[in-house]
UniProtKB/TrEMBL annotation:
Gene3D superfamilies: Vaccinia Virus protein VP39, Winged helix-like DNA-binding domain superfamily/Winged helix DNA-binding domain. GO terms for biological process: methylation. Pfam families: Methyltransf_31 (PF13847), WHD_Rv2258c (PF21320). Residues 28-98 form the S-adenosylmethionine-dependent methyltransferase Rv2258c-like winged HTH domain. GO terms for molecular function: methyltransferase activity. PANTHER family: METHYLTRANSFERASE DOMAIN-CONTAINING PROTEIN, METHYLTRANSFERASE TYPE 11. It comes from Halomonas korlensis. Residues 174-330 form the Methyltransferase domain. Keywords: Methyltransferase, Transferase. The lineage of its organism: Bacteria, Pseudomonadati, Pseudomonadota, Gammaproteobacteria, Oceanospirillales. This is Methyltransferase domain-containing protein.
Length: 355
């Protein structure tokens, strides 16, 4: 058997890449700790601080804080001043790590890979048997992490950018229509729209009971419960109210039969209604999706999205990198004649469908 020749330069480069990825995984644990302990917020509020000063402000032990700070400095997550032996966050770092309302706030997202590790045995079994793993069967950090991470992105873009990109929909919402938010999760998207358009009525639907409970609490806290409701139901049997707008936010690709979900939406849509489909950004071919963001989406899709679709029967397992062409085909088969890309971000495709 011939042993292929090893290119030492390529080997060293790939080892460095793999170690960098491993370091990032360690770093994610540090990000979660720093967020939950208030370390980032204290740094953002006070400017350069020593380890002792940060420990005092946050009620933490100095020796742990000092080691954490050095890990952050080594990763480029905080700045270090050797002369004064102090650390600080730049304004840009603070937006990502300390400002919970920022559209680029990242710490909550680390709960997702934490849940992926926790659920490893389920995933190993799924690989070996072909069985699915339902959304509600995952560790609870998955649902909380996804909801918190997407909330800020939706807050930044949904009302000011995505809805105006749809033809005539903002005017309808302002006048008052009935809206369905299918796969609403914790209801952040539903609540954002309800706050912006008080004359419309919003109904959130999800198959995960704990998420529906969280959504109801979020609506109450936001003061919009008078024109928002949430119901535990599937994407193919929620009440027919002839909706002026039906939304699928980052969820259609998780469904076991997305064509059936789109077909049902066509049936319960008002004559002049619109479907808003928000999906993870992807090109149509694998060779065009070989990027850092696509790696993240494919990985989550392996353990979460595909697994849930298979748990629902897996008639068509789209995955989180379906691409516009496959999504358009879903809606064509469901009876829609109009389908277009209304907007896009580095993370999402915003698509519009009509009869």
């Amino acid at each position: 058997m011939n042993t292929p020749a090893i290119d030492q330069t390529k080997l060293e480069a790939f080892v460095a890449q793999a170690v960098g990825d491993l370091s990032s995984g360690y770093g994610g644990v540090m990000v979660s700790l720093g967020s939950k302990l208030g370390l980032y917020k204290a740094l953002a509020d006070a400017g350069p601080l020593s380890a002792g000063e940060l420990a005092s402000r946050t009620g933490c032990a100095e020796r742990y804080v000092g080691e954490w700070l050095n890990a952050q400095a080594a990763g480029g997550y905080v700045g270090y001043h050797a002369v004064s032996d102090t650390y600080e966050l730049s304004p840009e770092q603070a937006m990502v790590l300390a400002d919970e309302d920022s559209p680029v706030f990242i710490p909550h997202a680390w709960q997702v890979p934490a849940s992926m590790w926790f659920d490893e045995e389920r995933t190993l079994d799924a690989f070996r048997t072909g069985k699915g793993v339902a959304w509600g069967e995952h560790d609870g950090r998955l649902q909380c992490g996804v909801a918190a991470f997407y909330r800020n992105g939706y807050r930044a873009s949904l009302v000011p950018e995505w809805l105006p990109a749809l033809e005539g929909v903002v005017e309808q919402l302002e006048a008052g229509i009935t809206v369905a938010d299918v796969g609403c999760g914790h209801g952040h998207s539903t609540v954002l729209m309800a706050k912006a358009f008080p004359r419309s009525r919003f109904h959130g639907f999800d198959a995960h009971a704990a998420s529906i409970d969280a959504a109801r609490r979020n609506a109450e806290a936001a003061g919009v419960a008078d024109h928002v409701s949430f119901e535990l139901t599937q994407a193919v049997d929620y009440p027919d109210r002839q909706y002026g707008l039906i939304c699928f936010f980052d969820c259609l690709h998780d469904m076991g039969d997305p064509i059936a979900a789109a077909r049902y939406a066509e049936q319960v849509l008002a004559p002049d209604g619109t479907v808003l489909l928000v999906e993870p950004y992807a090109q149509d071919k694998v060779e065009n999706n070989l990027s850092t963001v696509s790696r993240m989406y494919y990985s989550a899709s392996t353990t979460i999205c595909c697994a849930h679709a298979i748990s629902e029967g897996g008639q068509l397992v789209l995955g989180a990198q379906a691409g516009e062409a496959r999504l358009a085909e879903v809606f064509r088969k469901a009876g829609f004649s109009h389908f277009r890309r209304a907007a896009e971000t580095p993370f999402n495709l915003i698509l519009e469908a009509r009869r």
